[in-house]
Design goal:
heterodimer, A: 110 residues, mainly alpha, 5 helices, elongated, disordered N terminus, B: 576 residues, Sodium/glucose cotransporter, 3-stranded antiparallel β-sheet, 22 helices, globular, transmembrane (chain A), DUF485 (chain A), transmembrane helix (chain A)
Chain lengths: 110, 576
């Protein structure tokens, strides 16, 4: 983009920074990233706590050699993948359109 | 040299040659510095995801995780979970803003955010220390693979890995490395998937199960050579042939071990007959049933240890130089996101395969539990299952090729990112110097890899991640998300985190570590050093509030505004 240099001026920064659209964009990002991280960490630490304080529960056999501890362990991979997929969907659906709107406003103002 | 050893050597050589050929094809398209360092940011999603996964899944993942599963069972799941989750933390907190900052190394980021030369120097030192420390287990893994599969000495594997890495990196830099690493990912994946399917076939037609309150049994008459001193736990009475030193006294001939603990000195050979119970290294779960359940081993302070490993893996991944630099090879944030999903699918399925191979190795290679060389499990399972014959040798060769791909991929990624730092911070020059920088980056860790006794991947890898988690994680997370961070605060935090974790690394590598919680914290420092680094950074920043850079709002805006706004600029491009 050839206009990049001209854009990097204090006025454009300040303008964007102050705009409600940018505040909205940051809010959307925070509203997703922080609750998701908390949920993930809770699930992750729950595994450790269950393993140390409820070994009997973790040892319950489900199928053949497979016990609940192993299932929760493998589910950790699944949840990591699921969260990433949800994040990408969210970003494509909610973050990119918001960014696009700000961009159009800047271009309209110039 | 025996036939299986030759097959393995040929397979490893083929990987080296194939990597060099793919690398040299890349050379023809590498024209500028930007091509060398960040592949001109024009790599497609699937190749890039393959390269990221190929680079991330090191020898430690290929060999180490299966070895851990063999020894620790359900407890070893923490490691792959922490490493996969670390990738998630990187993506959620750091990847996109860092991509927008236009910096492509942590020192660059530190300078762009806080403009302090002292902080930049501290970061450069940290990148070099982390990179070289992480090259150490990779190179030693190459040595382990070569001694396990052939009769060649370990140093030849270390040296050969060093030479191949230098050649591929000097040949084409990041752009060719991308294709080489993508190739290496698929090779690693195949090298695990094929044996896993074959071994599963044998396992399903096998009457044995893990659900027994007894230790595993030897599947053939086995003689184990103990190379490093080990304490064994015997859960079930066993008769064996000893030649060497046990419990501090010379021992020769047939003996019977009652349940209890036995200290076996180095260079002792232990001969077991088929069907006898396998003694296990002390601290690991002794029976199969305990092995299936989490937290069942007898090692003390397990909760502290596990939390420490989780912290190191979860927060350390974002600080690994070779992982970070990969995000600049995406053309934009949208592509970076798409890449991430593919990467996590690739990493996740790889870890599941490794876990599975590790579990099966408990049935087929239990002798590794006695010698303590559990890291060799994946390499030995094919021949243990298929027996001596071409089927077993070829499958063994495939696994050897996968192992070679694993340490080559990670080592070359590390060398490229280290060379990037050496090139921009230490040499400051033209393209010729980049090649020199790559050479320097690869040669420095070689003497260390040759002289230090090899430790388990389970020990060395979380240590390196702990150093990254205690230095770069707080710097990146606070630098991106907190406007109050100051240069003094960042510097103090990096020094405290780096100093404490560095001390733990030195003591673990070069000294005998005391037992108890002090020992656990020296082996697994992250639980202490990461909070210490964060706390130092926050407190010192608040004390030096006057130092907050005046342009901080503009900088943060650039980090958080999507690149479609056209506000970000790349540091490497001429127009920036």
């Amino acid at each position: 983009m050839s206009t990049t240099g001209e854009r990097s001026t204090g006025t454009v920064y300040e303008q964007v920074q102050a705009s409600p659209e940018f505040a909205d964009l940051r809010r959307r990002l925070r509203r997703f990233v922080f609750p998701m991280s908390v949920a993930f960490l809770a699930w992750y630490l729950a595994y450790v706590l269950l393993a140390s304080y409820a070994p009997g529960f973790m040892a319950i056999k489900v199928l053949g050699n497979i016990n609940i501890g192993l299932i929760i362990g493998l589910l950790q991979f699944v949840s990591t993948f699921a969260i990433t997929t949800i994040y990408v969907r969210y970003a494509n659906k909610h973050l990119d359109p918001a960014a696009e709107k700000i961009r159009q406003q800047i271009e309209g103002a110039e | 040299m025996s036939t299986p050893a030759l097959v393995a050597l040929v397979a490893i050589a083929l990987v080296g040659i194939a990597s060099a050929v793919i690398g040299s094809v890349g050379v023809r398209v590498a024209r500028s510095t930007s091509d060398f360092l960040v592949a001109s940011r024009t790599v497609g999603t699937v190749s890039n995801a393959g390269a990221i996964s190929g680079e991330y899944l090191s020898a430690a993942s290929f060999l180490g995780i299966a070895g851990l599963i063999l020894r620790e069972g359900a407890d070893a799941l923490w490691y792959p979970i922490a490493f996969a989750a670390g990738y998630l933390a990187l993506v959620l907190f750091v990847a996109a803003p860092l991509r927008r900052s236009g910096a492509y190394t942590v020192p660059d980021f530190a300078e762009a955010r806080l403009s302090s030369p002292a902080l930049r120097r501290a970061c450069t030192t940290c990148v070099l220390v982390i990179g070289w420390l992480y090259l150490l287990p990779q190179l030693q893994g190459a040595g382990l693979a070569l001694t396990t599969l052939t009769t060649l000495p370990a140093w030849s594997g270390v040296a050969a890995a060093g030479v191949i890495v230098v050649l591929t990196v000097i040949g084409g830099g990041m752009r060719s490395i991308t294709f080489v690493q993508a190739f290496q990912y698929w090779l690693k994946f195949t090298a695990l998937a094929v044996p896993a399917v074959v071994v599963l076939g044998f396992f399903l037609s096998d009457a044995r199960t893990f659900d027994r309150a007894a230790p595993p049994n030897f599947t053939a008459d086995t003689t184990v050579q103990v190379r490093t001193p080990v304490v064994l736990e015997v859960a079930e009475r066993v008769r064996l042939q000893v030649d060497g030193e046990v419990n501090g006294r010379p021992a020769h001939g047939r003996v019977t071990w009652e349940p209890g603990r036995y200290e076996v000195a180095a260079d002792t050979s232990l001969g077991f007959v088929i069907g006898s119970a396998v003694p296990t290294v002390v601290g690991a779960p002794a029976t199969d049933r305990a092995w299936l359940e989490p937290m069942s081993g007898s090692a003390p302070h397990q909760l502290l240890e596990i939390y420490s490993i989780l912290v190191a893996g979860f927060l350390g991944t974002m600080g690994m130089p070779h992982v970070l630099v990969r995000f600049y090879t995406n053309p934009d944030g949208r592509a970076a996101r798409r890449t991430t999903v593919v990467v996590l699918a690739m990493i996740g399925s790889f870890y599941m395969l490794v876990t599975f191979m590790g579990a099966l190795s408990r049935l087929y290679t239990p002798q590794l539990l006695v010698s303590g060389q559990t890291d060799a499990a994946v390499l030995l399972v094919p021949t243990a299952v298929l027996g001596d014959g071409w089927a077993g040798w070829l499958l063994g060769g495939l696994v050897a090729a996968g192992a070679a791909a694993a340490f080559l991929a990670t080592s070359s990624g590390l060398v490229v990112s280290l060379a990037g730092v050496v090139f921009t911070d230490l040499l400051r020059g033209r393209l010729r110097d980049f090649r020199l920088a790559a050479l320097v980056s690869a040669i420095v860790p070689l003497p260390l890899a040759l002289s230090v006794t090899r430790l388990d991947f389970a020990l060395t890898v979380p240590l390196v991640f702990a150093v990254a988690a205690s230095t770069f994680c707080p710097l990146l997370v606070l630098g991106i998300w907190w406007r109050g961070l100051t240069a003094s605060g960042a510097l103090a935090g990096v020094l405290v985190g780096g100093g404490l974790s560095g001390l733990a690394v030195c003591l673990t590598l070069f000294a005998t570590v005391p037992s108890g919680w002090v020992g656990v914290l020296l082996h697994r420092p992250a639980a202490l050093t990461v909070p210490a680094a964060f706390l130092t950074m926050v407190v010192v920043s608040m004390l030096t509030r006057a130092q907050i850079p005046p342009g901080v709002d503009g900088t943060l805006l650039r980090l958080h505004a999507p690149e479609r706004l056209g506000l970000s600029h790349d540091r490497l491009d001429p127009q920036a």
